[in-house]
Structure formats: structure tokens, C-alpha cells
Amino acid sequence: MAQRIEDYAIIGDHQTAALVGRNGSMDWLCLPRFDSAACFSALVGDHENGHWTLAPKDGGDCTHRAYRSDSLVLDSVWEGEHGTVRVTDFMPQRDKAPDVVRIVECLSGEATIHSTLRLRFDYGAVVPWMRKVDGHRVAVAGPDAVWLRSEPEVKSWGEKFSTHSEFGLKAGEKVAFVLTWYPSHKKHPRLVDPYRALEDSVADWRAWAAQCRYEGPYREQVVRSLITLKALTYAPTGGIVAAATTSLPESLGGVRNWDYRYCWLRDSTLALGAMISAGFLGEARAWRDWLLRAVAGDPSTLQIMYGLGGERRIPEYELPWLSGYENSAPVRIGNDAAHQLQLDVYGEVIDSLHLAERAGLHAKKHAWQLQLALMEFLEGAWREPDEGLWEVRGPRRQFVHSKVMAWVAADRTVRSLEANPKLKGDVERWRRMREEIHREVCERGYDAERNTFTQSYGSQELDAALLLIPRSGFLPPDDPRVSGTIDAVRRELGSGASGLLLRYSPGEGEVDGLPGAEGAFLVCSFWLADALHMVGRTEEATELFERLLSYTNDVGLLAEEYDTQAGRQLGNFPQAFSHIGLVGTALALASPGHRAQALPDVEPATAGEDTPYEADTTTRTAG
């Protein structure tokens, strides 16, 4: 029986991540990067596709678990008839090679512990050759090698292409396992001291979390979400992956299964806003710099997503030997949506650069030239139909959100030119573009009879992204069309009594070209709370936000979606977009006067200057 998605917790080292279930089984791990082939793929297959279970021999789910405060170090505790056992899982920040450390300790009484390590490289397809060297187990297959050792050494044996260990522990005794990956053609890396690594990892995480400037309500949930975002950050480049997994389904048994181990430009503005507002300028700067490197080149070839280092080629293919999470096939690697035309990303990129500038991040001399190049392309392209922010695989449409974000691009460019007249650019030209887009959207994207904006021109369908209209500054919160849109989206896209929102009505493939339905999209419900707050309905916003908090799992994590009928999480996990939404809404609700503004009220940065920025929780966290 597969663990539920919310039964997993994440550990990571800022370059990759593993998922550990409540039963002590590590069912997902890609080495050495987030987007590398997995050596544990049981999450999207079965245990024969690779896992590492470490738990009391009696098995079963742990009694309780928690992260050590302000860290990504996970403690899982089993309280048995004869004793209590704790397993501590973490990945220390790496020197050169990634390590997974699992420390099992008997807290009281006595217990028998069993470990089963079933390594399967290349997403469960390759059984490695295992040998014993100097008391350690070494697994090799193709380019991959893994070194497993225990301190102290315990009895282990091979059986059915797996490595097993079994040993007894009494109160106060402990055993540490360390699994280390390295390229098979190189000498094995330096061995880490697992107990020193534990102390250092806890200290490192707590030192990082201490930078958080937010001290308002829901601080614990905010810090946990920020730690999760940090865990999804690829430290060498600053890129943030959308999730640590691939192909966790949007509907159990369905085909809406996608690879999210890449960096979406769409996340950029919201991620930057969350980090800046919470005081993490280093991470915000690294993400901004990744963004500039990734999008460099011909503006007409701008992609919606890139690899961890800004790679452009991430072809999509399927793994037929994997059955999928709860038989949700196919399992996909790569993502063909990378090459869709999604005009809203131009607005997202320009909004991100504008936000970074206003927050006082060190200005990049070429950033403005890049922004002008993007604007020149968008000037001729914004009228075209596209696939929209939800990456539909059906026909292109004139999506209203895409037009609104084209307006955002023009608006932020005008704002920058007005704030700094020394910048090169034709401010009147972009003002005219801004006015033209605004006029067209209000004429063609608004249904006056229903008093709501629509998903696309001439459509009766709605879209949760319309809730971003007031936050973008396209219309002020007190405009009656904003309230009308909020009410219409809530009424038509609401998912049962939960109050959670679908992102749109799939209509059996009429919009997105795919069969089946999907769960409520969690970030959309955070957007709804934001919109309610902006129009002064803060009590409703707070009620919805606290309901959303109740959907986090026992260690504070959220997937992409929620199945309101089955009462469980769906989609890739943990999801950056969901946690960005949580942080943004919490900071907005903490604003004095309980009102949110459309744009952060900070002074523009001076070119070549790195100015300090004080987190201002009286404003919106993004765009």
C-alpha cells in the first residue's frame, strides 16, 4: 500500500532532496541533483523500483514525527510495547558529494531494528553490482556509485538484490548509517562524521532561519514554508525548482502527471517578494541573478521554464516500467510545456526585475537592456493567442491573464522610467501600449452581464488567475469589477464546502486538451484569500487562510492540489507555489490596518549600489 502524499516529509542539501514516509521508507531520491535520475523510485512505482526502509522490525507507521525547530532535520519516533525508537534523517550541506544520514537511537527499553536498502539506478531500471570493501557496501552501475556504511558496523547481508541489516538496541544506544553518492569513475569521497554532521546541519539551518524578519501571526508556518523554499533551491545557481518530484498525479489514476523538477519563470515575482519581505536578500539576489542568466538571448525564444542551471532543453518522455503513484500513469521525465508560448511570463520577468530594483538589490547594468528587449518583442506579440499560465495542451486562446501580465510589463517599465529619467527608453511609447492593453482587456475580457472578467476573450469560463488583477495593479481593489470577479470565481470554481478553488473548469479536455479532472489548486485559494483581504473582507480572508493551514501535513508541508472529496493532497510535493502563497498571504494579513497594497512601497535602487532593505510587512509581498 502506497503512503499518501502527505505521509511524506522532505530532507535535502540545497542540491537535491529525498522523501521519507511515516513508515520509515525513503521512497524518492535523485542523485546528485534534483533533476538527476532517481535511485529510489518507489514513490512512482513499487518497492522493487528502489527504496530504503529503516524502522523497528515490527514495522508500521511512526507514532509521531517532527522537524527539529527551524531546521530540515527530521525525527520520527516509534513507541512500541518494549521500547521507543527514534530515527533522525537529514542531508548535510555537501562538500563535494551528497550524503544521506540516518541515525537510529533507542530512547527507552529495547528494540530490534531492520534496514532494507534496495538501490535501483535510472528511475528503478538498473540493478547495481554490490560488493563489500573494507567493511562498507559499494554499489556500482554505469556512471553511478553509492557507498553505504554504518557506525558502529552492524550485521548486514545481501538478499534478492537488496542489502539488509538487523540489530538490537537498548536505551541510549544508537547506530548511524551514511549513504554517499559519487561518480563511479572517481575515488570515493571523504567520509563524513554522521554525529558531527547532525550538529552542523541543525546549527546551519537555525542560523539561516534566524534571518527571518517576520515576527507576526503564523510565524511558525511562515518559517516552515521559507525553509521548504530554501530546500527547493539549487544552491550552485540560485534556481528554485517547482517541486522535488515528478508525476505525482493531479487526479488519482489519471494522466495529469508532470515533471516539476525545473525552474518556472512564473514563480519568480512571488518567490522574490516572499524572500525580500521575510529578509532573505541573499536568496532573492541569487534567484534574480539566475533569472537574468536564464532568459538571456533572443526575447522571442523566452521559455516558461528552464533547468537548474538555466538549461533550455528538457525534453519530455515516459518511463513505461514504472506503474505510477497509485497506478497514475504515465510517469513523465522532462516537460514539453517548456516551449509553449505563454505571454504572461514576459510580465512576470519584468515585474521580478522591477521588484528587485525597488527592493534595493544591487542593480545589474545589463538588466535594463534585457527589459527593453523583452518589451520590444512583447509590443508586437501581446495580441497573439497563447497557451496561458496553466500550460494547457489544447488550442491557443486569448487568455485574459496573459493580457493583464502584458499590461504589467508595460506598467513596470513606465514606472521605472518615471522613477529614473536617466534610463534609456521611450516612456510615452510604453504608456500608449499600457493604455491599449487595458482598454482591450476591459472591453473584450469582461462579461458585463455577470460582472466578471473571463478566462479568455468571448468565453463564459472563469479562471482563478483573474484574482490577481487587483494585486497586479491592473484595477484598484475598490473597483466593482474586482469584487464581481472575486464572487464569480468563488461561486463557479469553488470545490464543495471546503471553499478551495479549482484553477479553471477542465470541461473534459475542452480547455486543456486532457481527459479527467483535478483537485483544488492550493495557490489559487491563497490568491482568493489575498483578494478578499485587498477588498476589505479580511475576516473572510483570515477564515479561508486558517482553513488552508489545516490542510498542511503533520510537518507543515503542502503539495500542489487537494482532493476535497477524498480529503488528501494531490500533485507534486512539496510544491514551491503553494508555500509561496502561504508566506505571501500570512504577511499580507499581518499588515497594520488589515489592508494590502498592490505594489511594495520601497524606493528604487541606484545603479551599482547595494542598499539595505528593511522588510515592510505593511505592503504586498509581490507585484
Overall pLDDT level: 90
| Percentage beta strand | 15-25%
Computed over alpha carbons, the radius of gyration is 25 Å
Class by alpha and beta content: alpha+beta
The strand count comes to 28
**First-residue to last-residue Cα separation:** 44 Å
Sheet with most strands: 15 strands, antiparallel
Count of alpha and pi helical runs = 14
- What share of the residues lie within helices? 25-40%
Overall 3D shape: globular
What brief labels describe this structure?
disordered C terminus, 623 residues, three-stranded antiparallel sheet, 14 helices, alpha+beta, 28 strands, 15-stranded antiparallel sheet, globular
Could you characterize what this model shows?
The chain contains 14 helices and 28 strands. The protein is an alpha+beta fold and 623 residues long. The strands form 7 sheets. The chain has a 15-stranded antiparallel sheet that branches. The chain has a 3-stranded antiparallel sheet with strand order 26-27-28. Helix 5 crosses helix 6 and helix 12 packs antiparallel against helix 13. The chain starts with 7 loop residues before the first strand and ends in a 34-residue tail after the last helix. The C terminus is likely disordered.
Compact overview of the structure:
The protein has 623 residues and is an alpha+beta fold. The chain is built from 14 helices and 28 strands.
